[in-house]
């Protein structure tokens, strides 16, 4: 029944993927009616999410399974990175729950906070489903990124101060134009894997 389903980790259905994508669009666009601009954005969003999952697999794939579009309880998980383990053995490797956001630009503190709270809810649901507390990463890929990122740094510092994060959970902003250019080692360092 529903009580059991809320505590299982499952793949999202096609309808749930569509619901999640629509939710992502309404976070970026004021009008929820799908326009050509939104359709292009959806394709770009999916491509960026796939690219990040591939980069994570390149970095962690030998020791971890990189899974996309999972659901824990009522939370959608973009990318789940779980340790590969031998049957019956317990892995000491970390679990990572990764939320990917694509933005034209960082809107402000409330946008960051909303995304972060959504991620924290997913962490809580994942913990309830698996009895494992994962590290979490909010990766924001910005399409329009200026070299003056002090404002963004201050917003992230404010968010981390408000939630007193200790490194288990962090927020990373990556310019979309840099995603292809950085090495796996740089990507791993930036994202904190």
What does the secondary structure layout of this molecule look like, with pairings?
Elements (H helix, E strand, L loop, with lengths): L1 H4 L3 E3 L2 H15 L7 H25 L3 E9 L2 E9 L12 E8 L5 H22 L4 E8 L7 H14 L5 E7 L8 H8 L2
Parallel strand pairs: 4-5, 5-6
Antiparallel strand pairs: 1-2, 2-3, 3-4
What does this structure look like?
Helix 3 crosses helix 6. Strand 4, helix 4 and strand 5 form a beta-alpha-beta unit. The chain is an alpha/beta fold. The N terminus is likely disordered. Strands 1-2-3-4-5-6 form a six-stranded mixed β-sheet, with helices on both faces. The protein starts with a helix and ends with a helix. The chain is globular, with a radius of gyration of 17 Å.
Indicate the overall shape.
globular
Category by helix and strand content: alpha/beta
Average pLDDT number: 80
Order of the strands making up the biggest sheet: 1-2-3-4-5-6
Q: Considering DSSP H and I runs of 4 or more, what fraction of the residues is helical?
A: 40-55%
Strand fraction? 15-25%
Low-confidence stretches: 1-7
User: What is the CA-CA span between the terminal residues?
Assistant: 36 Å
The radius of gyration is 17 Å
């Amino acid at each position: 029944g529903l009580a059991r389903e809320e505590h299982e980790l499952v793949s999202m259905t096609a309808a749930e993927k569509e619901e999640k994508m629509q939710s992502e669009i309404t976070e970026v666009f004021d009008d929820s009616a799908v326009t050509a601009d939104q359709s292009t954005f959806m394709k770009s969003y999916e491509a960026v999410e796939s690219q990040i999952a591939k980069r994570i697999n390149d970095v962690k794939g030998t020791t971890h399974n990189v899974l996309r579009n999972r659901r824990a309880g009522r939370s959608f998980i973009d990318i789940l990175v779980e340790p590969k383990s031998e049957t019956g053995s317990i892995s000491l490797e970390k679990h990572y729950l990764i939320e990917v956001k694509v933005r034209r630009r960082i809107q402000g503190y409330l946008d960051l906070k909303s995304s972060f709270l959504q991620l924290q809810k997913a962490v809580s649901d994942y913990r309830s489903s698996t009895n494992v507390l994962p590290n979490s990463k909010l990766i924001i890929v910005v399409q329009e990124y200026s070299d003056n990122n002090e404002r963004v740094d201050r917003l992230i510092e404010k968010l981390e101060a408000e939630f007193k994060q200790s490194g288990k959970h962090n927020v990373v902003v990556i310019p979309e134009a840099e995603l292809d250019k950085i090495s796996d080692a740089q990507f791993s360092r930036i994202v904190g894997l």
